[in-house]
Amino acid sequence: SLITDPTLMLSIKHQIMLFINTIKCYGLPTEPLPLLLQEMAEHYTEVLMQRWVVVFRDILDNASFLPIEVENQEQYDGVMDTFPYDGDELETQPFPRKFPFSSIVPAVYVQVKEFIYAWLKYSAGLGLGGGRR
Known about the structure:
Elements: H1 6-25, H2 32-62, E1 67-70, H3 73-82, H4 88-91, E2 97-102, H5 104-123
Antiparallel strand pairs: 1-2
Helix pairs in contact: 1-2, 2-5
């Protein structure tokens, strides 16, 4: 397929879903259309993966591999808001505090969440989200 814009693919999916619902209202068969949506879902996944390969490569190319060090509570809270680290021992240390990971970890965490959200946008209403692995 030549479509590489996820937003356009979401729009097309939405239009096909509306068409399926309209056809069902008239009692007409919709057999080939769900298969088309499933094939589009596979292509949508490939498009997302191509996009996020670039994002992850950029993160790795530009990231520091040193542990994140914060100087005050505001910086600490900023890291914790981005990445839900469960490190009680860090909470009691005086500033400056060092996290046991680099800036890559929260950056990748945020992008993985964005990838999942993007895929869930497409799979909504298709019954593809839970059983697909």
